[in-house]
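Budget justification note: compute hours in this period were largely spent on complex prediction jobs such as the one shown. Inputs:
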Amino acid sequence: MADLDIAGVQEAIRRAAAVRSPLRIVGGATKDFYGEKLVGDVLDVRELAGIVDYEPTELVITARAGTPIDEIESAMGASGQMLAFEPPRFAPGGTLGGAIASGLSGPRRPYAGAARDLVLGVKIVDGTGRALSFGGRVMKNVAGFDVSRLMTGAMGTLGVITEVSLKCLPLPRTEATRLFAMSADESIRRVNEWGGQPLPLSATCFHQGQLAVRLSGAPSAVAAACAKMGGTAVEDTEGLWTSVRDQTHAFFAGAAAARAPLWRLSVGSTAPYTDLGGEQLIEWGGALRWLASTPRTDLARVRAWASSHGGHATLFRAADKPSDVFHPLPPTLAELHRRLKATFDPNGILNRNRMSTAF
Amino acid sequence: MNAPIDTSRRPAPEVLAAVLGELATRFGERAVVNASVREQHGHGEGLADAALPDVVVFPHTNEEVAAIVKICASVRVPVIAFGVGTSLEGHVAAIHGGVCVDLSQMNKVLEINAEDLDCRVQAGVSREQLNAELKGTGVFFPIDPGANATLGGMAATRASGTNAVRYGTMRENVLGLTVVTADGRIVRTGGRARKSSAGYDLTRLYVGSEGTLGIITEVGLRLYGVPEAVSAAVAQFPDLRSAVHTVIVAMQMGIPVARIELLDDVQMDACIRYSKLDGYEAKPTLFFEFHGTQAGVAEQAGQMQALVAEHGGGAFRWATAPEERTKLWKARHNAYYAGLALKPGSFGFATDACVPISRLADCVLETRADVDATGLVCPIVGHVGDGNFHLVVLFDPNDPAEREKAEGLARRVSSRAIAMGGTCTGEHGVGIHKLDALVAEHGEAVDLMRTIKRALDPLDIMNPGKTVPRQETGAH
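Corresponding output:
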């Protein structure tokens, strides 16, 4: 059955490649807002679904790309395991393939690994219709180029992901969240200080003078860390972090209600707090800054600020998007991108223009 | 296991003479044609695959590396990056001659940002040098392949080591790179931000590309806070099976052990002799190390002790003082040399199977039985916490029959791992030795790897003949 489905994907790609007609790869369509343009005929991969292999004792799960993230998480949760990168659910129905293709990770990312760190192997169909397999189900594999990581975050522009193997981590035995009232500057200083100490941090979020810090692990370690760090307890730990992960938190809801373009700034974690002309929510120990922009936000300044702090700025959500939502690449890097794109998808049919107007 | 060396691809004498002239003009005494220097750069560790480069150049800057590559690209001469020559699969052998770029003089630590938990180093900085410079800053870099390799070499081979269970490998710990491309341009991938690249994750593509896509000249690395408490322990077991099962259960329970290493009876015997480990028996042994808070370490160690006892292992022998721990891990890191000393005059090479945790016991035990049937002396040692183990295959280089037996055993270890859903190489890489196994493992996907190689190195001058076989698999 699975082979038939993959054969169907191969057939659709071969047909499109023959006439260079673009295909738009769609799973749960929960991240259509993300990226540049949506171009081409829909290639719905949701039927490539189902967990192929999950033996909790192996610490690896293999599932087809169309499998809903919720299904994977409940299977893993029942065995005391989790997807440690906490893939965001921006709407119901998100799939594993979409989570990996977008490469987006949630609050636990700096402490437990990004999507790409947990991907052990992928199967894809490339832009010429070849079904290929990279990596595998083992924790370490240095056999050849690391194509499975290259596929993670490539936004479907290098191949249709059909199957993914991921490393499973045990669910923390306990979690607690502490809340601190402090300034943005102070919160950045403190989370970086704590980050260098043997504390079981698993998420941070600063918003409007409040810093929330999640601790995860063995009960004794979490209790000791709570005592050491102080702060006050947050009752609904899960609710808070789910709202940050899925962008239902008041900050994101407010930005959406105001139709304020939302920027995602990935920077060095100690970059000082800077007023960029809009409200900010700061995650990942300071390394991820969300900016709800206002008319006084200067977009060129946002990009320049992110670059000067070792990172980049993405226009994450906006009603009207310009053509460069992703941070422009220096010319040499842009050329390497074009060459890789041509390697995987010589006819330029897969998610054309989703990542760059150049391809 | 050695690919035949195709001498027809060596540069023509007049081309070479022109390149040597240009390099001599630009680099003076830092372009060396002396035979003993070339000899030293013609091989890594492991089997002697000596294939000498025509010249060895010692650049100091990114721009100098770029200049070398441009000179070579203009006349299509191979360029082989070299750190300290500790790779194991023939990665640095100049099988088609050409220019060896020795990065060992690019050995400056460029930035240490202890607060941000990151640093940036030139490619020639060794892991021990970095940790020496980090002393007193409260942070450290955990990846520790046996040899004191350079960080550029470790990035290029996607190295790991004994700490991988807790801290990951080079794959997870390289934040960004400076790379000289095959046409001699300098690019910077990633940055200091955690999810640093806009666009494709080129950092991850260059990490582990074994110098075949470009030369890594600078490496941005993630650092870790020095744990508040560190404790090491040794447990010995009546048989191999119970030692391996202890590891499997520990991993499945998610006990966050920093290091967990298996040495079989033969390896333990070798280490006792070579590293003068007193008071141990030549029995299957696990080395553990726990990192964390005082309370955390005590808790992990308690869980582990209980598991060891359940599996019939002996009492923990602790090494808590830093000098005792150093002695223990030094003995582990010297396991390969200890193995060689078991059979003086022999050659040795290491196999590198990595399998899913649930197949680890089958794979190790079948391999042990296979070794016993061959009559060869092959200690087993491994970072078993991630499913990876090595056989050190010893053989008499003057006995062709024994060499054939050794190579047959190595091939079977690779195929066994692949058949169990694993890989022929968990950490040593492909180089020239595992090209066939790569095809067996990845099939048609190797064709796509080859097109990536062509796209980024169209002239095939970057460490040619390594990592990806030149021939099509013919799978379609």
